[in-house]
Design brief:
11 helices; 19% strand; alpha/beta
Length: 324
């Protein structure tokens, strides 16, 4: 299967302030705040949901096609993704804007002050999927992840008009979307991804019941945190897959992206839905044990050892065939 992953491409600039923000504010001067915090730590990490998912698929050897917009500062990030098995030739490069960037400072009490610069992400709406499909010889599935909202709508409508199966994955953008936009983005999706909270929000904003949504999508994939994932289909019994045991819990950021990467890789291999979900849960477990969304390394022997422990020899044999 040729799978395109559309979504944000960004970098995170994370700083640590050793003091407390609260000690720096003067109650009767809050209307004229002008502060500068001397930080003692800076971590620059690669991120963006599209890039995170594509990176995970690259680790599993399924060669995803990343579709999104980045800035003229993207060269180093592009090289990193290329070395990790991601096709980046369909990433649009802005001539004037930087790659999207999240800048955040955290104090000693874990309070945060952050800003998100959309930058080149706003140009994702200018990408035509037909151009991508023509370059790679057709697309079997397009994941439409959190991105510029206009881009998400354009890609969804193009998938429908060209009869390309698509997966809807609103993620962070669901908070800013209205019910009508969500109805457009999910109607006819082969897969609808969300966590449990987002599931309720989708139903609330659209005004559609769970049963009505199931009638409009092929599969509803709901991640359940430490409990794993549930896959529902209209008229069929749900498939529920648990998570492998964690060795440690370092950082939950990017865990959902990793699940999607594993699940989509399973689809690319042609394994059953339950097996694809197991691959997704195993990859998500590796990410929660690592600080950063693309800082983990998939060591195949270690991956298969833990996969076998969690899901048994029969499941492992089937996955091993594809993982190599």
């Amino acid at each position: 299967m040729r799978i395109a992953v559309t979504g944000s491409i960004a970098t995170d600039h994370l700083m640590t302030f050793p003091g407390r923000f609260a000690d720096q504010f003067v109650a009767d001067q809050l209307h004229t705040v002008s502060l500068s915090f001397l930080v003692d730590q800076l971590d620059v990490r690669r991120g963006g949901v599209g890039a995170n998912i594509a990176f995970g698929m690259g680790q599993l050897g399924t060669r995803p096609i990343l579709v999104g917009a980045a800035g003229f500062d993207f060269d180093e990030y592009r090289a990193w993704l290329g070395r990790n098995g991601v096709d980046t030739d369909s990433v649009r490069i802005s001539e004037t804007l930087h790659t999207a960037r999240f800048v955040c400072t955290t104090d000693a009490d874990h309070n945060q002050i952050g800003s998100f610069y959309t930058g080149a992400m706003s140009e994702a709406r200018q990408i035509e999927l037909k151009t991508v499909a023509d370059r790679v010889g057709g697309l079997d599935l397009v994941l439409i992840g959190a991105d510029d909202p206009e881009a998400m709508l354009r890609h969804t409508e193009e998938c429908r008009s060209r009869s390309i199966p698509f997966a809807a994955d609103f993620s962070q953008q669901i908070a800013r979307m209205e019910g009508e936009e969500i109805r457009i983005l999910l109607d006819g999706a082969t897969y609808l991804f969300s966590n449990e909270y987002e599931k309720g929000l989708i139903e609330s904003k659209t005004g559609w019941t769970d049963a009505e949504i199931l009638a409009k999508v092929g599969h509803r994939v709901t991640t359940l945190g430490a409990q794993g994932v549930r896959i529902e289909r209209d008229g069929a019994e749900p498939i529920v897959v648990g998570c492998p045991e964690e060795e440690r819990k370092a950082d939950p950021t990017g865990v959902g992206d990793a699940f999607r990467a594993g699940f989509l890789s399973g689809l690319a291999w042609g394994v059953p839905l339950e097996r694809a979900a197991q691959v997704g849960c195993m990859l998500a477990t590796l990410v929660i044990e690592t600080v950063g969304t693309q800082e983990y390394q998939l060591r195949r022997a270690h991956f298969m050892e833990r996969f076998t422990k969690a899901y048994g020899h029969e499941a492992a044999t089937e996955v091993q065939t594809h993982l190599g």
